[in-house]
Amino acid sequence: MATVNATIAGRQFRLACEDGQEDHLQMLAQDIDVRIEGLRKQFGEIGDTRLTVMAALMVADEMSEAAHKMRRMEEELDALRDARVVATDRAKAASEAVVGAFNSAAERLEGITRKLNQGVANGSNVAIG
């Protein structure tokens, strides 16, 4: 377990974290410190506790907005996945229809070729196919 010394609202705090998370924890502490200092400049000296609560509420609000946005994006992703499945099914059906049309045309051409070749065998000089 690692420790980080961080300054928040002018006070030093010794914070514990998992090994390798020291820089991340330091960054989070700096973010809170910047928020508190910004609130202090905006509202003046209204007390460390109030400033800390206000900063915490700001962070909670951002987390709530991020969670809401993430839910909307997940719903959009699900809709896109569903649309992709529908498009794939339509493309497969269209491909099968084209193959069927080509097969049908080939069968008709083979039938015409047979009839023409039979006509040639019965006295015409031209062979087809």
Structure write-up:
This protein has 129 residues and is mainly alpha-helical. It has one domain (2-121). It is 74% helix and 11% strand. It contains two helices and two strands. The protein has helices at 22-43, 48-121; strands at 2-8, 11-17. Strands 1-2 form a two-stranded antiparallel sheet. Strand 1 (2-8) and strand 2 form a beta hairpin. Helix 1 (22-43) crosses helix 2. The longest helix is centred in the middle third of the chain and has 74 residues, at 48-121. It is rod-shaped, with a radius of gyration of 37 Å. The mean pLDDT is 93.
In brief:
With 129 residues, the chain is mainly alpha-helical. The chain is built from two helices and two strands; from the N terminus they run E-E-H-H. Strand 1 and strand 2 (11-17) form a beta hairpin.
Question: Keyphrases for this structure?
Answer:
mainly alpha, two-stranded antiparallel ribbon, 129 residues, 2 strands, 2 helices, 74% helix
Write the layout of secondary structure elements.
Blueprint: E1 2-8, E2 11-17, H1 22-43, H2 48-121
Antiparallel strand pairs: 1-2
Helix pairs in contact: 1-2
